[in-house]
Design brief:
binds adenosine-5'-diphosphate; 7-stranded mixed beta sheet; alpha+beta; Rossmann fold; 16 strands; Dna Ligase, domain 1; 3 domains; binds magnesium ion
Length: 343
């Protein structure tokens, strides 16, 4: 099959830590054709969605070592209709430009897209967790979202929590995540001015600081609604954010039974929303966020657990493509039978 990866840039891939590169390599090992493309390469040519896609040239031998593999990759660049793909993975950090999803709307019925375009549309920012509807906080922390500085100030006043977290609605990699101490409010108005301008288009998240966050969070990888691996990210000294991008370190982690129950519950909803490959950030039993665009963690979990999770991901892509092909064949057969009966 031909698999396309929408990525930010090939040159900025860190081969040892890249989950995307691990998946790409696994596809090539299985003799699939692999191409990468960038969002600014998306093009409509006479009403058909195309892309300047860079197809990886077939190698006589794929190096075992991931860095050697990365260095050995060469590309053949061509303008091609995106219908040429059997499958695409969107592996670019959020937020994604909604126009990219509109480009992909044109092919989503024919090409398997992980995650589903409409699923990404729903989960393109942190408001997605509100669709879980958990007003009693069984698995979501107390979370307020608002574009009103007055509301946020009032929510801080009314909160029973001494410590709270303020973060942007569509951030990633820990950007803009800060702690607010209730009794040290001198900076709050200035901060809110920074997060929320007068356009009416900015929203900010105010969230309870989750107990136990000092020990870091847990990145849980979910595939087709099921948990496939997890690891603990501990924040660097003096840091509250456990993201690897902010100096967090990776540690082995065994999921608790109640965490597994939460994942199972969420898993059904994720699949119903077309969100097949997802990274959950959890502290205890609470889900902080659902990463649907470019979740990482494969390489860290592989190292800590001696696994090759990329194999499970590619197995799943193959299954999805096979199922789509079968459906198409069945439909074509039915259409043929229908027209024969009419004749
Ligand atoms: N409510 C919270 N309580 C404690 N720590 C938090 C909370 N929210 C975020 N953090 C810390 O900040 C990190 C980044 O927050 P997250 O909501 O996952 O945003 P991002 O999309 O930037 O990764 C988390 O991994 C966690 O370490
Ligand atoms: Mg996160």
């Amino acid at each position: 099959m031909h698999v396309g990866f929408i990525i930010a840039s090939w040159d900025s891939i860190d081969p040892i830590n890249s989950s995307t590169l691990a998946i790409i390599k696994e596809c090539l090992i299985r003799d699939h054709e692999v191409s990468v493309l960038y969002t600014d390469n998306l093009t409509v040519r006479n009403n058909v969605v195309h892309g300047f896609i860079e197809t990886i040239n077939v190698m006589d031998k794929i190096p075992e070592n991931i860095v050697s593999f990365y260095k050995k990759v060469t590309f053949d660049k061509k303008l091609k209709a995106l219908h040429a793909f059997d499958c695409m993975m969107i592996r670019k950090d959020p937020p994604i430009n909604p126009l990219v999803l509109n480009f992909l709307d044109a092919i989503k019925d024919e090409v398997v897209i992980i995650n589903d375009v409409d699923g990404i549309r729903k989960a393109n920012n942190k408001l997605y967790t509100t669709t879980f509807h958990d007003p009693h906080n069984t698995y979501l922390p107390i979370t307020h979202v608002s574009g009103s500085k007055k509301f946020i100030n009032k929510a801080i006043d009314e909160s029973e929590n001494e410590k709270m977290i303020l973060k942007p609605l569509d951030g990633s990699g820990g950007r803009g995540v800060i702690v607010l101490e209730k009794n040290a409010r001198s900076n709050i108005n200035s901060l809110l001015d920074f997060y929320i301008d007068d356009s009416g288009d900015n929203y900010v998240i105010l969230q309870e600081y989750i107990e136990g966050a000092e020990n870091g969070d847990v990145r849980v990888l979910m595939l087709n609604g099921k948990f496939i691996g997890a690891y603990n990210r501990k924040p660097a000294t003096g840091e509250i954010r456990a993201n690897i991008q902010t100096g967090g370190t990776a540690h082995k982690y065994t999921m608790t039974e109640s965490q597994k129950r939460v994942c199972k519950k969420i898993g059904t909803k994720l699949v119903a929303d077309g969100l097949y490959f997802v990274g959950l950030d959890m502290i205890g039993d609470k889900i902080l966020e659902v990463n649907v665009l470019n979740p990482g963690g494969i390489t860290n979990i592989n190292k800590l657990e001696k696994l090759k999770l990329q194999k499970q991901v590619v197995d799943f892509l193959e299954e999805k493509v096979d199922a789509k092909v079968e459906k198409r064949v069945e439909l074509e057969y039915l259409l043929k039978r229908f027209s024969e009966l009419r004749e």
